[in-house]
Write a structure and sequence with these properties.
- The protein has eleven helices and nine strands.
- It is of the alpha/beta class.
- It has one domain: TIM Barrel.
- The strands form two sheets. It has a six-stranded parallel β-sheet. Strands 1-2-4 form a three-stranded parallel β-sheet.
- β5, α3 and β6 form a beta-alpha-beta unit.
- The radius of gyration is 17 Å and the shape is globular.
- The structure holds fe (ii) ion.
- It is an enzyme of class 3 (hydrolase).
């Protein structure tokens, strides 16, 4: 398995606090069958700043330790970038990283986003050859209440990444319901852990894929798993399935 969103790097944000914790998290990821993980520390979210060069340095250091410890996990560089007005300026200045040096870039939405602003940002990113992946739309306060709105962003060219914890109900009923609905409406293309620590917000990708198989079927689970692999190879991520049929059939 591949995990495209994690806070595995030690001491850079609200994820792993120190190297020992990162190693314990990495062991836990490897145990459940995760072979590659993209480290995506928060960047420009108002609290943490982790520019590209620093993330690359930290990824190389953690990678060395994993090899020394014999932990079979590859760590790749990335960022979870808050979608602010300075995004394009920062990209042009070389401060930003895509996911594992692919065209895919992981973005976190501001709580008070406006779809028109996002539409413009998505367009500008596409002009630069980038493909925006929206991190956990189901956890966004507006979208948790109105999951169908996320479809507008997907139609503009954004991809959706649902968080395993959301599907598993660990952020509460409302977020779980939004996550399920987005999966059913075909606006989710990727699943990732967004792991922050060993236990409370750990690596639970295997459990999430099991739930997806059970709730949405084997083909959807395979599509999501295949999409994470395609992303890492810089190939096209497949459009999600089950759209209109579910839209009509699904009531809350
Ligand atoms: Fe995150």
């Amino acid at each position: 398995m591949i995990d495209i969103h994690s806070h595995l790097l030690p001491g850079v944000d609200d994820g792993s606090a120190e190297m020992e914790e990162s190693l314990a998290m990495a062991r836990s990821a490897a145990r459940q069958g995760i072979r590659k993980v993209i480290a995506t520390p928060h960047h420009n979210n108002g609290r943490y700043v982790n520019p590209a060069a620093e993330v690359r340095r930290a990824v190389a250091e953690l990678g060395d330790r994993l090899r020394q410890e014999g932990i079979p996990l590859d760590v790749l560089p990335g960022q979870e970038i808050r979608l602010t007005g300075r995004l394009l300026e920062d990209w042009d200045a070389g401060q930003l990283l895509t996911l594992a040096d692919t065209p895919y870039i992981l973005l976190e939405m501001m709580p008070d986003f406006e779809i028109s602003h996002l539409a413009e940002a998505i367009h500008e990113l596409k002009v630069r050859g980038l493909i925006p992946v929206i991190a956990h739309p189901e956890r966004h306060p507006e979208l948790a209440r109105r999951p169908e709105w996320f479809g507008e962003l997907v139609e503009l060219g954004a991809l959706g990444q649902v968080t395993s914890h959301s599907l598993l109900g660990r952020f509460g009923h409302m977020i779980r319901r939004a996550a399920f609905r987005m999966c059913r409406e075909g606006t989710i293309h990727l699943v990732a852990t967004d792991a922050h620590d060993l236990l409370r917000r750990g690596f639970d990708l295997k459990e999430a894929y099991e739930l997806i198989r059970k709730e949405f079927g084997l083909s959807y689970a395979e599509l999501l798993e295949g999409n994470a692999e395609a992303l890492l190879r810089s190939e096209t991520v497949q459009a999600a399935i089950q759209t209109r049929r579910w839209r009509k059939a699904w009531f809350f």
